[in-house]
Amino acid sequence: MATGGDDRYALALEEARRSLDQQKDDLKAVRDRTAATVGLGGLAATFLGGLALRDEAPLSGWTILGAGAFVALVILMVLTHRTYTFVFSQDAAEIILWAEHYKAGLAEMQRDLALWLFSQFLKNRRTLSCLWRAYQAAIVTLLVQLLALSLDLRGR
């Protein structure tokens, strides 16, 4: 393999690293947003649910739906905070192995590392897409909870 093109491979490696850094930020964002959504759901459950259950009022279907929506919201948050395998960098020992055992040059190592990081980006992207869908479901669930508890209050 030709060892020329160091600049091209350095650029590819820089872009691969930037992509993984963005994914790391996206993971934090989806987890933070889902936690905030659950916080809003908890406030809604406390205030609206408390108003709906005052004076020993019987449980209505709307109250049960609102409580169920809150439980679903918490489950969605747990799913987004669960430990998933994300890779945002390469093991330094592997890079040393490339250099010492395989006698790879700088350009080769940059190329191979950029390709490896890109493959990790693709794997991470699948999981992150699922987490963003869970967050979207959490938003819908929060709206269902608010609507159900509001309708429950209106009916009392």
How large a portion of the residues is in β-strands, by DSSP E? under 5%
Spatial shape: rod-shaped
Q: How would a crystallographer describe the biggest sheet?
A: none
Rg over CA atoms: 24 Å
Please report the distance between the alpha carbons of the first and last residues: 77 Å
> Helical percent range?
over 70%
Q: pLDDT below 50 for ≥5 consecutive residues: which ranges? A: none
Mean pLDDT: 89
Q: How would you explain this protein's 3D organization?
A:
The chain is mostly helical and 156 residues long. It has one domain. The chain is built from four helices and no strands. Helix 1 runs antiparallel to helix 2. It starts with 5 loop residues before the first helix and ends with a helix.
Topology, pairings included?
Layout: H1 6-52, H2 61-81, H3 92-100, H4 106-154
